[in-house]
Amino acid sequence: MRQRAAELRERAMRRICVLDARMRTLAEEPEEGAATAEYAVVLVAATGFAALLVTLLKSGTVKNLLTDIVKQALSVA
Prior knowledge:
Layout: H1 2-27, H2 32-58, H3 60-76
């Protein structure tokens, strides 16, 4: 009976050590690469949006619209 209890205790201790190692591994910031990937996606999206804005602002229609807005603002003052 004592031998059986000692075996069970030993087995439980081994499992606890394995569980502890797993928990420590998971607690050590498992998503370090995810943050970098998220930054990369945001940078690509921001670059695409900036390119779209530049394209829009270079068009003649938008230039005329902005020029008219500035002229109106200056003429009111």
